[in-house]
Every structure is written in C-alpha cells, then in structure tokens.
Write a structure and sequence with these properties.
It is a single chain. The mean pLDDT is 95. The chain is an alpha/beta fold. Helix content is 14%, strand content 32%. It is built from 2 helices and 10 strands; from the N terminus they run E-E-E-E-E-E-H-E-H-E-E-E. Helix 1 runs parallel beside helix 2 (96-105). It has one domain: 3-Layer(bba) Sandwich (Glucose Oxidase, domain 1), CATH 3.50.30. The chain has helices at 72-81, 96-105; strands at 6-11, 13-16, 19-26, 31-32, 60-63, 66-67, 88-91, 109-111, 123-127, 130-135. Strands 1-10-9-3-5-7-8-2 form an 8-stranded mixed β-sheet. Strands 4-6 form a two-stranded parallel ribbon. Strand 7, helix 2 (96-105) and strand 8 (109-111) form a beta-alpha-beta unit.
Amino acid sequence: MTQEPVSFTLQGRVIRAGQATGIALVSPAPIGFLGGVDPDTGIIIEPNHPLHGERITGRVLVFATGKGSTVGSYTILRLAAAGQAPAAMIARESEAIVAVGAIIGDIPMVDQIDVGLIQSGDRVRVDGAQVTVERDRA
C-alpha cells in the first residue's frame, strides 16, 4: 500500500521574489559563502561545516542565517553566473550579506520561516512568500 506524502505550507517574508522548486538541503549551522562555498562548483568547502562536501547547486538551501564577510554577496553572484547557485534559499533570518547576494544573483529567497520544520530531502517549492514542503512518509 502506497502512502500519500505529507504536505504543508509556510508563509515568510520575500527577500527576492521568484518561484523555484527543488530538494531541500538543510544546514544545521550558519552558512558563510566567502571561503565556505566554492563558487565554481557549488560545493561547501568550509572545514568542519556539517555540510562539508555537499553541493548546493539546484537545491533549496535552508539555513538559520548567513555569516561572514560582505564579499559573500559577490560569491553568491558568482555561483549564479557559473550556474552553480541554489534553486532558492530559505532562512530563519536573512542578514544583509545573503539578502544582497540573492537579489543580485536573482535567486528566490524567503526568510522568517521556521527552518526546523524542513528536512533535507523534502521537496520544496518557493513561490513568493509561500513555501510548500512535501515529504514522503517513512
């Protein structure tokens, strides 16, 4: 017998309007883009980061907040220019570095979301301020 997936919707605040769908990659730690993500490959390279070695390309990147240098905004733009950016970003709280990166990189982004409700592997759709999460039942 096949079970229906669990689906729920969250409302947040639009940082960069847009629509995107992808598989969630949830970071249990803040993301630092400058020196933390390789802009040519989309792979998290920050030593000791819980997602070290994971690729953010085409994923819906979910995290509490960003960290680090203001050059992180440019790193996000470089990811987008190289075709290695996440499909969308969802944050509990976006600070200026990540917000500017999402805006100039044209990456849909929403914040003011309870990111603890989303799990890596969930199918996520961002549509403006609305985030729809679909999870297969275990």
